[in-house]
Amino acid sequence: MTPSEIDKLIEKAELLRQKSQYAQALLSYTLALKKSIKEKNQSSAIACLLSIGDVNRMIGDFEQSEKAYARAVIEAKKIKDDEAVADASAGIGLSRRGRGDWKYALTMLNKALAFYRKKRDREGIAFTLWSLAGSLRIKGDVPGALKTYKEAFKAFQSLRSHSGIGYCLCGLGGSSRIAGMFKESLAYYLAANELFRELCDTFGTAYSHCGIGNAHRMTGNYRKALASFAKASALYKKIGDRVSYSYTLWSMGTTHKMLHDHASAEELFKEAQGLFKKTKDPRGLIYCQLGFGEIALLRGKTASALRHFKTSLSQAKKYGFKVESCHAAMLLSYAYGKKNMVCYNSLGIKMDFNEAPFNIP
Fold it and tell me: Where do runs of H (alpha helix) occur along 19-121?
């Protein structure tokens, strides 16, 4: 096996990855990695490990992605490849973020950003800003996330990276929704969807369909929301993305909850919960607990609802998820008979909740 054959395997894997055929891409990267190790081609081996980390992260296998990135760090240090170390550090941060550890994610991503700024690596800076923005959103620093997504958007614009611009638009759409700016959220997601369809980016198209669905949901257009979620879920299933599909299921469940179809909502929350357990996503599990609690409350089972809300609040505080803590605290106060919305004000986000069912963004 010659290096050129390794390059062909990597090239094939990249093509499959671009087509969102992640399982097949992983097989090609893994084969290329084995050949690279056999050939003692360290640079190729590191490139394969980084890509294996990326693809595993995209399909929600965060443990495997972190293992691949950690191996990449070890191999990169052997040949003093500082750029690869920074790339792997950013990947480790994103993998931890997927499991709720946003604090460690911010540490690793800021470390990578400092390196890229020092090297004036514009692509690295743009990607890391986008990654940081997502981590800030999970932390609950929504104004900070919006500001950082806008910085990343400008950085990708200067690079003329249409894909990067699209993912920033999705990030802005999601953060705008959490901030209570639903019209802006819809506009961002619609722009992203148009871009991704032009690029034939299946993952991005699915991501934006889900965002469009959530924006419709937040403005009470539930039928339009379900139609968009159906498009997103079909694409996510096709590419095998468990992470995003799980959140789409939760969004569908919440839409059914708003339509007072409690049985369908509960079924979808259970399906989402099963996937969140597999991906070890504590934030997703909290959202499911909130959904179960609210359905219990709507069915008049207050004791069960209180258990779910208390568990959600405890978990949200444990992981430092500020927005989810506010949702749990608000629902708990509502269940006790006196709704308290103060928590949201402290985060600088606008919520206009009246009574159950609550349209959690």
Answer: 22-38, 42-58, 62-78, 82-98, 102-119
